[in-house]
Amino acid sequence: MRFDRKKILLVDDNxxxxxxxxxxxxxxxxxxxxxxxxxxFLFLEKTLPDMILLDVLMPGxxxxxAMRRLMGDDRTKHIPVIFLTSMADMGSEMEGLxxxxxxYIAKPFIPQLLLKRVETHMLMExxxxxxxxxxxxxxxxxxxxxxxxxxxxxxxLATVSELVECRDDITGGHVERTSRTMRKLVSEMMKxxxxxxxxxxxxxxxFLQSSQLHDVxxxxxxxxxxxxxxxxxxEEFEEMKKHALFGEEIIDRIQRNxxxxxxxxxxxxxxxxxxxxxxxxxxPRGTVGENIPLQGxxxxxxxxxxxxxxxxxxxxxxSHEMAMRIINESRGTHFDPAILDAFVSAxxxxxxxx
Length: 354
Ligand SMILES: [Fe+2]
Prior knowledge:
This protein is an alpha/beta fold. It has 2 domains: 7-136, 3-Layer(aba) Sandwich (Rossmann fold), CATH 3.40.50; 169-348, Hypothetical protein af1432. It has 15 helices and 5 strands. It has helices at 15-25, 37-46, 63-71, 93-98, 111-168, 174-192, 196-200, 204-210, 223-226, 234-241, 243-256, 262-273, 294-309, 320-329, 337-348, and strands at 7-11, 30-34, 51-55, 81-85, 103-106. The protein has a 5-stranded parallel β-sheet. Helix 6 (174-192) packs across helix 13, helix 6 (174-192) packs across helix 15 and helix 12 (262-273) crosses helix 13 (294-309). The structure holds fe (ii) ion (FE2). Fe (ii) ion binds at residues 215, 243, 274-275.
């Protein structure tokens, strides 16, 4: 037996037919013969052929019933079956084909014609396999390209957020910590079903990544203001407030040079809305309640929490308990009460480190 040859199983109760078909095909394929469907199933337990030529009228299980069983079994449903039909069951060809047979050949068959039909179907099967292989490869290529783009996006993102952070936060790590706090908050909200409809429609990983750009507008704020150790004057604070709209503009400029991108959409909303307050006293637009994008309402809490528990040029780091007390005092004024409650239980339900 040569291993590169395709295997064909012939199933027919007529020994003359079996012999003729075998002699026709054996020069090109490894041919196996069985006299009925019962023997065919026994054969299939050990060997899976590349094609089955199946007689319809046989004692015991007939060809159609055998076909149904072949199609119902994951191991055998992919094997192409050609029915061998005599004049007596010609009327049932449609039934055979609708059961999943790839073709039928009328008996008595002309040997050369049988060989040609078998060759054609073997070729079609080989092409199907090749297509499957090409498709799988295409998927791999697309995946590789996609991850290369994501890698680039992450590298640019990490660098930009580091740049912002270097200028703004002498303790460092604010962006990364805030993103971790956001993850904790979002997963608690999803667990509790808080704003679940909207959160479920997001790609959370993408959203968390984009949250790293929320303060990108600080690139445009002068060092004298950004790094001032004391309290800002009214004018300086007005200048500082501009970072929200600057951030929006920066991301808008990137958006104009790229195709539709969910990551940037989140980033732009976050940059422009993370200083809005629930009661409308925030900036830059003074938006109220649920009119503030959900992204901004989430960021507001994570951002303030991190500022409180971090050492800044103008203050020492507060403990977690102290930070939570301060945040709770702004429930319903600065912060969305539903999100704040989820924030509190997110910390309650796990160990925290201040
Ligand atoms: Fe900010």
